[in-house]
Specification:
alpha/beta; Rossmann fold; 2 domains; six-stranded parallel β-sheet; four-stranded parallel β-sheet; 10 strands; binds D-glutamic acid
């Protein structure tokens, strides 16, 4: 296994966060809000995005390559800030790094079931996520325990538009209306955002809900819960970095795609100036 660069204490090591592209930034913003003292490394696998239409084996291979790179950087914890990679690969990542705290993000079926008033919950996610065994088991388990009905809606093409920065375009509105209108027609009163890219098109999702005649439709995002789970794990392992000592927290970006895409995404989506390095893994 790769040796870790030295950090003054294990608590001083960074947290690694990755996604297929810019979607994980919607999780990163919650992590920064809840754990502002932590050093963070964000890795966008944009050279291989989107994951949503790829095979499970491909996504597992990418997740393991990224986990190997980030553990080589000495991360003290790993956040799989991607529903698709969590559903396909978190088991394999945990099996390879049994000592490492690993937090994933899955479509919020449980909060969706808690929020619905009529028992009908629409789930917007990638094709790969909605075909994953882990997701289907979760759906069956929560449906059995709550009586909720989950309407699974794959959203091919949406991640591509978000990666291209089309957060407010007519094309994005049209695509979203095509996905959301059938869910509302079937009676869904709650929609789960089952992909970390989707919070970045929240206004467009709200427009599509209104265009489809929906009102009082609850939207569920789990970014905040993921950050809380990370905080719990760090605290449990005595790994939280103290706030007042040493260097100010660093945030460093890596991308397997174009540097000229990730740095502007940090700026436009999170209002942050971040040094981004290209990476070949
Ligand atoms: N952000 C990823 C997710 O949460 C996007 C998947 C993709 O690359 O298609 O599922």
């Amino acid at each position: 296994m790769t040796s870790h660069p030295p950090f003054p204490t294990p608590a001083d090591a960074p947290i690694g966060v990755f996604d297929s592209g810019v979607g994980g930034l919607s999780v990163l913003r919650h992590i920064r809000a809840q754990l502002p003292q932590e050093h963070l490394i964000y890795l966008a696998d944009s050279g291989h995005a989107p994951y949503g239409g790829k095979t499970e084996a491909f996504v597992v291979e990418r997740a393991l390559a990224i986990a190997a790179y980030l553990t080589g950087k000495g991360v003290k914890a790993l956040v799989v800030a991607c529903n698709t990679a969590t559903v396909a690969a978190i088991k394999a990542v945990r099996a390879h790094y049994p000592e490492l705290p690993v937090v994933g993000v899955e479509p919020g079926l449980k909060p969706g079931a808690a929020a619905t008033r009529n028992g009908k919950v629409g789930v917007l996610a990638t094709v790969r996520t909605l075909q994953g065994e882990k997701l289907l088991q979760l759906r069956d388990q929560i449906a059995a325990s709550t009586g909720a009905q989950f309407l699974l809606q794959p959203c091919p093409g949406l991640v591509d538009l978000i990666e291209q920065g089309e957060l407010d375009s007519a094309a994005t509105d049209a695509l979203l209306t095509g996905f959301i209108a059938p869910l509302l027609e079937q009676g869904a009163d709650t929609l789960v955002l089952g992909c970390t890219h989707y919070p970045f098109v929240l206004p467009a999702i709200e427009r599509a809900v209104l265009a489809a005649g929906g009102h009082d439709v609850k939207l569920i995002d789990t970014g905040d819960a993921v950050a809380r789970q990370l905080a719990r794990l760090l605290e449990g392992g005595g790994l939280q970095r103290p706030g007042s000592v040493g260097h100010p927290p660093m945030l460093h970006g890596y991308t397997t795609g174009g540097v000229d895409a990730l740095a502007p995404a940090f700026r436009s989506l999170l209002q942050l100036d971040v040094v981004v390095e290209p990476l070949k893994i």
